[in-house]
Amino acid sequence: MFHQLKNIDTAFKHVRAFSIVMILACLIISGFSLIKSYQAIQSAQNRIYILANGKVMEAFSSGRKENIAVEARDHVKSFHQYFFSLDPDDKVIQATISKALYLADESAKSQYDNLKENGYYSNLIAANISQEVRIDSVRFDANQYPYFFQCYAIQKLIRSTSTVNRILVTEGYLRSVSRSDNNPHGFLIERWRTISNRDTTILYQ
After folding, report:
1. Is 70 exposed, middle or buried (0-12, 13-18, 19+ CB in 10 A)?
2. How many CB atoms lie within 10 A of CB 81?
3. How many domains does the chain have?
């Protein structure tokens, strides 16, 4: 009789151990499933589909930190193109300069005011000069904040009789701000200044 009770006790211990193992296994499997489901949902949320010309293209979203250098360089390029690409028309100049001033602080406004007071824009209009800028490169330092940058560009002054090429080098700092329709990259150029703006070649037509 005691031998029978001992067998029952041993069987009970085995059943209890087996039950504990099964419960732990179920918990581990459930936890793993939840983690994988969460990762799948996150991956799906980062993936979007764009319909263009009747074709579906897949795109992926990414965080700001991953693209900060790309966005910063494009912000600097956009500012310089707005500020320096001008036509001999007062309304066009006002419109492009206004777009540029949304992307920078008072340092850009100060340069604009100085140029205006010195009659720079009036001379462009009077002489029918178009001004273009081509950005060669933008050096960007992401290791400090505000982010330091230097912009290297070629500026062209196009007249009916000649074209003047200038080397343009500027520098400044980028501070993060809220994105808006006028400032889609969410940066603001601070302490902007022109280091060099000298003539290199004159082409007569």
Report:
1. exposed
2. 17
3. 2
By DSSP bridging, strand 55-60 and strand 130-141 are unpaired
177 inside domain: yes
Within-domain flag for 96: yes
- What is residue 2's predicted lDDT score, i.e. its pLDDT? 44
Question: Does 119 lie in the same domain as 29?
Answer: no
Q: How far apart are the first and last CA of the chain?
A: 120
Query: Is residue 116 located within the same domain as residue 40?
Result: no
Same domain, 10 and 83: no
Give the orientation angle of helix 106-117 with respect to helix 64-84, to 10 degrees: 10
Strand order in the sheet with 187-204: 130-141, 147-158, 162-176, 187-204
174 beta partners: 147, 189
pLDDT digits (tens, 9 = 90+) for 35-71: 887 776 666 555 665 655 656 555 555 555 667 899 9
Query: Structural domain of residue 199, as residue ranges?
Result: 64-204
What is the C-alpha to C-alpha distance for residues 177 and 190, in angstroms, rounded to an integer? 12
31 and 70 in a single domain? The answer is no
d(CA 16, CA 144): 60
What is the C-alpha separation between 96 and 117, in angstroms, rounded? 18
**pTM across the whole model:** 0.69
How many of the other CB atoms lie within 10 Å of CB of 192?
A: 25
Cα 123 from Cα 117, distance rounded (Å): 11
